[in-house]
């Protein structure tokens, strides 16, 4: 069959970034053929099935509308490389666990393997687009690998970082605050940059497409995440002070958030931030600073991660103190396990370290979550003393305490009278997300411990 598509676009990596992003491009640009490949055959099979490997509101509909028409999921990476002009790379770049920079630097082995595979398979010029988050100057390494074989094929590397947040991925992709496209400032670099601008112009207003030099683009992604995480750590640090001074962190957030210079978003005090990006990207940024001899700058950013760890530990110690200094044998229900609402993703979820610490204190845990229970079971594999229960009412029955880990709306809407009646007494609620009606719960009979405001107790 003759290929009548205007462009052939390939994406290597069918994960949380590659899958949804390519689905959106396919949906908005029926004139392009989009193929998504992955070394993980099982994941490709899932993308081709009725149960997609990623849960994202709105994703199913868009995949259904495009799959088999101009969106294809495949396992033949070499064929994909040969047939496409533009290659997005969305493979994972986790924190390195070994050798120099272990625990901080990005592990670029998948990224490098992908670059080598592109070089080996390519038979015509390619534009290679970095979609995953990588340290600044990765494009330089990419260029070196791509051009190290003298095969007279030209490659242009473009940085086009992904700013989507999980749970709102489709909305973020459809109406992005901005799309950032960085390239070399050479003639061929600008030409390649324009080819990527052309794709987004199909649905993103022109003023929201920012063009820049490639290093600014790479760095901006890390900095955006570092600034967002910094806001959460800042308000979480203040939540500790509020608890000591009878101030209310919600009221403080509101008061400072209405300063138009600060803005109101990302000021909800919590048990700490999670997710695959924040910690990894800040450590990556700090490592980058260290390699340039900027130790003070590195320490500054690392402290954002330290406050996050402190906040989780503070939550556990608060539970321990409030429940008469022993959790041994007590039954605690964790409401939620995902790192945030509207996702089944549990990567770096604060609930994991809190669960492990509570088990260390010999508490018995019952974990409930509408989307993340199967991931919770994998994450806590081998840890004894944990029950998994999808129904929150059954999960809470017989427990001494409830602890909100994830801001799922459904937890704010439960019948707490009914729950209270089935729990052991005195019954405790630790609201790690400040989403519950604290006064209402107190009236029912609970001892209520919010984050960053005075507890409401009956003793
Ligand atoms: C983030 C960035 O938002 C996104 O732009 C980037 O591309 C990837 O990293 P994501 O990890 O999906 O996205 O989630 P996000 O909504 O940013 O939340 C991160 C964590 O912070 C969650 O654990 C969330 O519950 C927590 N959070 C967020 C707070 O504790 N308080 C807040 O006020 C906001």
Number of DSSP strands? Answer: 14
Helix content: 40-55%
Shape: elongated
Report the C-alpha radius of gyration, rounded. 24 Å
Residue windows where pLDDT falls under 50 for at least 5 positions: none
Class from secondary-structure proportions: alpha/beta
Q: Order of strands in the sheet with the most strands? A: 3-2-1-4-5-6
Mean pLDDT: 94
Separate helix tally = 18
Task: Report how far apart the termini are.
Answer: 77 Å
Residues in β-strands, percent:
5-15%
The biggest beta sheet reads: 6 strands, parallel
| Distinct small molecules bound, one entry per kind | uridine-5'-diphosphate-xylopyranose
Short structural summary:
The protein has 459 residues and is an alpha/beta fold. Helices cover 43% and strands 14% of the residues. Strand 10 (364-368), helix 14 (373-379) and strand 11 form a beta-alpha-beta unit.
